[in-house]
Design a protein that fits this description.
Blueprint lengths: L4 E2 L8 E11 L5 E11 L9 E4 L4 E7 L2 E2 L5 E4 L2 E4 L5 E10 L9 E5 L2 E5 L18 E11 L5 E4 L2 E7 L4 E7 L4 E2 L5 E4 L2 E8 L5 E8 L8 H18 L7 E7 L6 E2 L4 E5 L12 H16 L8 E2 L5 H19 L4 H20 L11 E2 L8 H33 L4 E2 L1 H12 L8 H4 L5 E9 L4 E9 L11 E8 L15 E5 L3 E6 L7 E3 L9 E3 L4 H10 L3 H21 L9 H11 L6 H8 L4 H8 L9 H18 L1 H17 L7 H6 L2 H15 L4 H4 L7 H14 L3 H14 L5 H15 L3 H12 L6 H9 L8 H14 L1 H4 L5 H14 L3 H8 L10 H17 L3 H11 L1
The protein binds ligand BES and zinc ion (ZN).
The site of zinc ion has 4 residues, from α3.
């Protein structure tokens, strides 16, 4: 029953389709679907005489070939397919089937969300709508006729252009849409229901107009300005940066409350999880604003990288996703101007926190995998984030101009087709004249490679030598990779000694297992700044001394490496403390002085200061811990060390934090609160808000009361009052929510009643806005101190629901996947909770369950007590769960 699909088994489709006409009679309990498709035998195909269509959970009503009813002995329907025996070489196939959208809780195919019809077809949802060769290399021109009750479903949308609409006399109406571009069926979409629309007409580069529309529920439409502005900026940016313009007269985005993923790039009709569309200063945090901008950019950029050129098969997924993530990262970075490093740092943090652990665990796979049971499980951090890093390395190796030339070449030679990763890299080869065959190994080798670095300085000859060794992550079958290493050399004053480019960096191309290189005319022993801007997704192993790291953290002209050095320093202290039996303090004086200097250095941008000051997350710490194969995670111990580091940091700088808080707070209240222009709101003051809220976080991590007597620190009660005041007086959600979060996550137990009062206030204020209530749930489920009783109370809360993915993720996924300090408990209660919720979710939504299933995959990285507890739950899960998505995850975890 479970079939594994292998990349090398690819066969071209037996038949091609030129045109598809779809007709829908939309009814919640029985929607009739008529499809009429024009097939012709594929000259490229091997001699499979039958036409095999996918179809899942469909009630087949009738089949016609060339308008003749097809005799039942000429076809066969079983489980998930429909086989037409020996059809002619060219024919018209008409099929009518019925589906039940109201029963579709998996939210794949055609489903209902708040009484509105929506579709989600990627990767394999179209087969839940009608019979078709549901694979991305079958591309056709779609015409779609929608019919529905006019009162219940006044808005009827599909891909492309509206060519006709009108009323029937029975209260129903219709709309006919035509998409002029050939597309695979996974890009098909329809939307029907009650929506309002925020729209704007823009002028494209060639002077032609285009209509941009954002659809949302009436009560949410006032929160769509930022999305519309972001879309317009994305369109302009893609033209300016890559010469790619919008190819449609009409581009629509619909906000959906129930959605499995973040958003979907259906041609001309993007469907979004409402959380990535709706935002306004009084409902969304700065991170929410940033997420809206990047997801809007991402889905829009797919219009070229994904839609005009799509993937031949799902093994090529990174072809569209890695490339498009790279593009959306660049879009967001470019919006920041001089502050683009802030975006780079956020992206690398993500990579380290999610992708690298994935790549060192049982789910490790190359960005182009070799096989899968369920493709939905391969929308991973590796395909996306590492995939984007691979594209970024090409950009680094080739340079902006050559890269753009290669991208343009790729899009023009493959336009209107389904391509492979080889096609992409081959375009880059043609544009640059370079041999990228070795580079291609990044597509087939998994794991994070290590690069060992040793240096030698020859005083007499003024030569600095670098000895590099690359070590693949997984075993001996892995061959050396082509790794771009951007390096600088600093003197004691922090001055760059190299002058290869304006940044004082040299690009080293590491291609051999061992490679040495020499820098000449280096008159003083330099400090090495390696992997600037994180030029490759590798681990650098280099034995810096503390002083060198401090120098880089204070002086490196490469802001990424400046941040990186500070993080590495903190991590090394965490790791040292973890290995000691009785650590007294975690962070030494020298590091705390460095932090103090940064905090008080007003010449550094506030947002960048906040990043430099923020200590590595607990997750980053445990990730670093497990890079040593001999180390295991003891959550209790790791958590205590990490917490110890936090309080050293908070206390040593207490008065400075207080001063910084007041400064930033004054500045923020002076910032005019621009409610007219959401883009201006989001950009101005973000850095200062970040720093203010980091300061509040630090202030709330307060010392034991015994320490208070002999310190000049502000009394905890006064700090709590500060947080309460910020909560009450903020004119924006970012700061109000930050005050609440810091109270819930940091304030100690003495403040419980006051924290609870704020939580209650927040709930009452916002109970009618489900996206804000998601935050309220998420905040509690990610509190490091949450108890199992409190978790169960969240599940039993009247506003909790298993059918809404956002709500489930806020509570269940957040706790099991994003709250390691509360989830891993020696009584195993966290794991029992996981098992119960997983079993329950399998019956509602397998994709959401599949994601949750991954919460225990890292069991082998833990100390024996935890490992055993996890293993038994995994085994029980494997015995009683049959959902394909989950089975695959459990299989890999237990392997
Ligand atoms: N094509 C995906 C959406 C998708 C993913 C559909 C998996 C079906 C299964 C879309 O372009 C995407 O990548 N969305 C991301 C957000 C994006 C900003 C990285 C998502 O939904 O998480
Ligand atoms: Zn995508």
């Amino acid at each position: 029953m479970l079939t594994r699909t292998y990349r090398l088994d690819y066969q071209p489709p037996a038949f091609l389709v030129d045109r598809v006409d779809l007709g829908f009679d939309l009814e919640p309990d029985a929607t009739r679907v008529r499809s009429c498709a024009y097939y012709q035998r594929n000259p490229q195909a091997s001699s499979n005489v039958d036409l095999i269509l996918n179809g899942e959970g469909l009630q087949l009503n009738c089949i016609f070939i060339d308008d003749q009813v097809l005799n039942p002995k000429h076809y066969q329907q079983d489980g998930n397919s429909l086989r037409i025996f020996s059809p002619p070489d060219q024919f018209k196939l008409s099929i009518e089937n019925t589906i039940v959208p109201s029963a579709n809780t998996d939210l794949s195919g055609l489903y209902l969300s708040h009484h509105n019809f929506l579709t989600q077809c990627e990767a394999e949802g179209f087969r839940r709508i009608t019979f078709f060769q549901d694979r991305p290399d079958v591309m056709a021109e779609f015409t779609v006729m929608l019919r529905a009750d006019k009162k219940a479903y006044p808005v009827l949308l599909s891909n492309g252009n509206l060519i006709e609409c009108g009323d029937f006399d029975d209260g129903r109406h219709y709309a006919k849409w035509h998409d002029p571009f050939k597309k695979p069926c996974y890009l098909f979409a329809l939307v029907a229901g009650q929506f309002c629309c925020n729209e704007k007409t823009i002028t494209r580069a060639d002077g032609r107009p285009a209509l941009l529309q954002i659809y949302a529920q009436e009560s949410d439409i006032h929160k769509t300005d930022y999305a519309l502005q972001s879309l317009e900026r994305a369109i302009k940016w893609d033209y300016t940066r890559f010469g790619l313009d919008l190819d449609l007269e009409r581009f629509m985005i619909v906000a959906a409350s129930d959605f499995n993923m973040g958003a979907m790039e259906n041609k001309g009709l993007n469907i979004f999880n409402a959380r990535y569309v709706l935002c306004s200063s009084d409902s969304a945090t700065d991170d929410d604003f940033d997420a809206v901008e990047s997801v809007i950019g991402h889905e829009y950029f797919h219009n070229w990288t994904g839609n005009r050129v799509t993937c031949r098969d799902w093994f090529q997924l990174t072809l569209k996703e890695g490339l498009t993530v790279f593009r959306d990262q660049e879009f967001s970075a470019d919006q920041l101007g001089d502050g683009r490093v802030l975006k780079r740092i956020d992206d690398v943090k993500m990579l380290r926190q999610h992708q690298m652990p994935e790549d060192s665990g049982p789910m490790s796979h190359p960005i182009r995998p070799e096989s899968y049971l369920e493709i939905n499980n391969f929308y991973t951090a590796t395909i996306y984030e590492k995939g984007a890093e691979v594209i970024r390395m090409l950009h680094t190796l080739l340079g902006e101009a050559c890269f753009t030339k290669g991208l343009t070449h790729y899009l023009s030679v493959n336009d209107g087709t389904a391509a492979t990763c080889d096609d992409f890299v081959s375009s880059m080869e043609i544009a640059s004249g370079r041999d990228l065959q070795q580079f291609m190994r990044w597509y087939s080798q998994s794991g994070t490679p290590q690069v060992r670095v040793t240096t030698h300085y020859d005083h007499a000859r003024h030569i600095f030598r670098l000895d590099l060794q690359q070590m693949p992550a997984h075993g001996h079958d892995h061959k050396p990779l082509h790794i771009p290493l951007l390096c600088g050399l600093l003197d004691e004053q922090g001055v760059n000694l190299l002058s290869d480019n304006v940044e004082g960096s040299r690009l080293i191309e590491l291609r051999q297992e061992f490679q040495s290189l020499e820098f000449t005319q280096i008159t003083r022993a330099p400090t090495l700044s390696i992997l600037r801007n994180f030029s490759a997704p590798v681990h650098i192993i280099f034995d810096y001394d503390d002083e060198a790291l401090l120098r880089l953290a204070s002086q490196d002209s490469d802001d990424f490496n400046r941040w990186e050095a500070g993080q590495n320093l903190a991590l090394r202290y965490f790791l040292r403390a973890y290995q000691k039996t009785t650590p007294d303090s975690v962070l030494p004086e020298s590091y705390l002085t460095y932090q103090k200097n940064i905090l008080n250095d007003g010449s550094i941008d506030a947002g960048f200061r906040a990043l430099l000051l923020n200590l590595p997350s607990y997750e980053r710490f445990t990730e670093a811990l497990t890079q040593d194969p001999l180390q295991t995670i003891d959550p209790q111990r790791a958590s205590a060390i990490w917490q110890g580091g936090q309080s050293d940091w908070a206390q040593a700088l207490h008065t400075d934090w207080h001063k910084a808080y007041l400064e930033q707070n004054t500045q923020n209240t002076q910032n005019t609160h621009n409610t007219q222009n959401q883009t201006a709101y989001s950009l101005t003051g973000q850095g200062s808000r970040r720093l203010q809220n980091l300061a509040l976080h630090a202030l709330l991590i307060h010392p034991n009361s015994s320490d208070l007597s002999h310190s000049n620190q502000t009394h905890p009660n006064d700090i709590i009052a500060l947080a309460e005041r910020q909560y009450q007086l903020s004119n924006n959600m970012n700061d109000r929510f930050a005050a609440l979060r810091n109270m819930v996550h940091d304030a100690n137990a003495n403040a419980n009643t006051r924290t609870q009062a704020l939580l209650n206030d927040f709930y009452t204020r916002y109970q009618h806005d489900s996206l804000i209530i998601d935050k309220w749930f998420a905040l509690q489920a990610s509190a490091p101190t949450i108890s199992m009783d409190q978790m169960h109370a969240l599940i039993e809360h009247p506003d909790f629901s298993y059918t809404n993915p956002n709500r489930v993720r806020s509570v269940v996924h957040n706790f099991c996947l994003n709250n390691p300090r509360a989830f891993h408990r020696l009584d195993g209660a966290g794991y029992d909770f996981w098992l119960t919720q997983l079993t329950r979710l399998c019956r509602v939504n397998v994709q959401v369950a599949g994601r949750l299933a991954r919460a225990l995959e890292h069991w082998k990285k833990f100390t024996p007590a935890y490992r055993e507890l996890m293993l038994t739950r995994l085994q029980i899960a494997q015995q009683k769960i049959y959902a394909k998505d989950v089975v695959e995850i459990l299989q890999m975890a237990l392997y």
